[in-house]
Amino acid sequence: MERDEGRLPGGWAARWRARPEWLLRLPRNRRGQRRAVQALVGLCVLALLPATWLFLTTDDRLRTPADVPRTDVAVVFGAGLWDGEPSPYLAHRLDAAARLYQAGRIKVVLVTGDNSRASYDEPDAMRAYLTRHGIPGSRIVSDYAGFDTWDSCARAHRIFGVDRAVLISQSFHIRRAVALCRSAGIRPYGVGVSERHDVTWYYGATREVFAAGKAALDAVFHPDPRFLGPREPGIRRALSDGG
Predict the structure, then answer these.
(1) What pTM does this model have?
(2) Euclidean distance between CA atoms 49 and 155, whole angstroms
(3) Coil, strand or helix: which one is 44?
(4) Cβ atoms < 10 Å from Cβ of 219
(5) What strands lie across the sheet with 187-193, from one edge to the other?
(6) How far apart are CA 28 and CA 26, in angstroms?
(7) N or C: which end of the chain has fewer CB within 10 A?
(8) Nearest to 169 by CA among 55, 78, 231, 48
């Protein structure tokens, strides 16, 4: 009995005839399928190499707030604003910096973030938060062009003269920050802030897998930050201030 293709559910025959060309080229024998799987596995391994590099090269630089060496400068990376105030994740980074300052483990805080438009100013919001939590304004230095982690690290070294620093960020980001700052010429110690594993945390952790690829390229090619500018004496002045 001849099959009436027009009566197949959902127009199955028409959809099969209109299938993409790449589907037509999929291997149909076992040898071809095995090679396709091997190619897919190889691509997955290549995609995970940058993340593996981060884990293998940063373990010796990670510390807790209790055992991080006394260091003149701490760098706090921006993490977004909510209605002009630090987001909860950014507030936790700033809280950690305030505790380290009060414990005498750091002397100056470099807050680095995005101020690419007048209505969005991460560094000033971070400064205001820290002053409310006991750090004198004279001990806070602002970098208004920390548009991403590499820019923040490169500018900390090249513009602000930072050679050694405590880096403060969430645990899922701190390895990338340590690797990039080390590549930029800074001897870093990373302090990862622990967070509840909510949707935002899982998003950030997943994003890091993809961001590791860009980090590897930045570490190899050392691109100039999007904005460089003249050297800034803010860190030196803050360290010489007796307040």
Answers:
(1) 0.78
(2) 27
(3) helix
(4) 20
(5) 62-63, 187-193, 164-170, 71-77, 106-112, 140-143
(6) 6
(7) N
(8) 78
Q: For strand 81-82 and strand 85-86, is the pairing parallel, antiparallel, or unpaired? A: antiparallel
**Tokens standing for 169?**
């960020």
Average pLDDT on 51-76 reads 89
Predicted pLDDT at 29 = 72
pLDDT band at 1 (very low <50, low <70, confident <90, very high): very low
Helix (H, G, I), strand (E, B) or coil at 120: strand
DSSP 71: E
pLDDT value at 2 more than 50: no
% of the chain exceeding 90 in pLDDT: 61
Q: What is the pLDDT of residues 170-222, one digit of tens each?
A: 998 999 999 999 999 999 999 999 876 665 666 666 777 777 888 888 988 99
Region 153-182: what's the mean pLDDT? 96
Q: Which CATH architecture has domain 59-240?
A: 3-Layer(aba) Sandwich (3.40)
What is the pLDDT of the chain when averaged over all its residues?
Answer: 84
The length of the chain, given as a count of residues:
243
Beta strand segments in the chain, E: 62-63, 71-77, 81-82, 85-86, 106-112, 140-143, 164-170, 187-193
Q: Extract the tokens encoding 146.
A: 């920390």
Please state at what angle helix 30-58 crosses helix 199-221, rounded to 10 degrees. 80
For the chain, domain boundaries: 59-240
Q: How far apart are CA 98 and CA 193, in angstroms?
A: 13
The sign of the CA dihedral 89, 91, 92, 93 is positive
Which residue's structure tokens are 């010429």? 185
